[in-house]
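Action item from last meeting closed. Structure (350 res):
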């Protein structure tokens, strides 16, 4: 295997010049740099990332911190980030904080990041005070995806707007008996999206003087499997909703599965709507509120690269991406056999 000394000898320059040329340092003339790159390609020489990092003080890695890597949303955001970074010779260092249960996670530590990453992109996790102090102490740039954090640039959608759009859709179809799938245990304090979407659902119901009974509110771990299992009692009850608003498409898939197992026809007996426009949503003919998840990842990667190259985005930069209603075959007006009096009660809405 060729070494840097081989490249220097063939190119007729010093080892130091080869090093500077391969790192893109300005002190090398364009002609010499081109010659070095040509020889390096001919000899199939690849510089050691570790050695380059020691010399430059840069790893060319960006830590991407996720609460769960095995979920479609997070994997798709990471894919978008990676596509943006690799175009500039950077790469993703994945930091998966998933704990042993849905309501737990690991904490961000200095050892996860120190001398391993040039920047950090945090997905949907509001850092605790101690974690924020670690990131501030390391002095590396931070970009967030999915939630707004003071002092850091962010890329996100308005989760409340997305949920309001979904909820108003079924109300405008004529549904008044509306269930909700997607609350999380009170112990889940590391995810902001479930809280924002649940709150927006309740706000829209109150605007229309509607109420969602507690038995029509489904708590789950945001997987299709859990939603399918836990929504069956709600859908099998004598008094059941005619529409279910799911906090994500994966949850909606579970509700669709439960309805099918109970012999309910969608949308005749039950309308179901989700949020995200998951890669499988069109296959399941699911009405949803679409967000461009990969684009958010690409934009987060681009913001990070701007910062690393001295084109820092404002710390107040808050990039809101649009959402849109995508109507498919899982929602319709309630049929006469399922329609009933509106659920309007003085009980507090969620």
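Sequence:
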């Amino acid at each position: 295997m060729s070494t840097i000394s081989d490249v220097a000898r063939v190119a007729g320059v010093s080892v130091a010049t080869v090093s500077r040329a391969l790192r893109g340092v300005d002190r090398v003339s364009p002609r010499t740099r081109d010659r070095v790159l040509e020889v390096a390609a001919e000899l199939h020489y690849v510089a050691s990332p570790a050695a380059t990092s020691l010399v430059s003080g840069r790893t060319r890695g960006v830590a991407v911190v996720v609460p769960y890597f095995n979920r479609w949303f997070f994997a798709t955001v990471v894919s978008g980030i990676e596509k943006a970074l690799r175009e500039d010779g950077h790469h993703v260092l994945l930091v998966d904080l998933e704990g042993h249960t849905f309501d737990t996670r690991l904490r961000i530590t200095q050892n996860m990041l120190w001398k391993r990453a040039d920047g950090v992109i945090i997905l949907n996790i509001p850092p605790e005070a101690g974690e924020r102090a670690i990131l501030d102490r390391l002095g590396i740039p931070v970009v967030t995806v999915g939630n707004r954090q003071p002092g850091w640039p962010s890329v996100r959608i308005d989760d409340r707007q997305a949920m309001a759009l979904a909820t108003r859709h079924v109300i405008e179809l004529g549904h008044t008996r509306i269930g909700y799938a997607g609350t999380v245990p009170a112990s889940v304090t590391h995810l902001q999206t479930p809280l924002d979407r649940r709150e927006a659902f309740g706000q829209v119901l109150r605007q229309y003087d509607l109420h969602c009974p507690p038995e029509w509110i489904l708590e789950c771990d945001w997987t299709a499997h859990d939603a399918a299992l836990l929504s069956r009692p709600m859908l099998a009850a004598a008094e059941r909703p005619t529409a279910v608003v799911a906090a994500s498409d994966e949850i909606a898939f579970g509700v669709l599965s439960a309805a099918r197992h109970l012999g309910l026809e969608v949308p005749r007996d039950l309308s179901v709507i989700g949020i995200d426009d998951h890669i499988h949503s069109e296959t399941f003919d699911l009405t949803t509120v679409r967000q461009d998840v990969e684009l958010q990842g690409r934009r987060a990667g681009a913001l990070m690269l701007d910062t690393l190259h001295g084109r820092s985005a404002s710390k107040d930069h808050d990039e809101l991406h649009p959402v849109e209603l995508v109507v498919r075959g899982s929602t319709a007006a309630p049929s006469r056999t399922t329609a009933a009096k509106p659920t309007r009660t003085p009980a507090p809405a969620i």
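Note appended to the action item: The longest strand covers residues 61-66.
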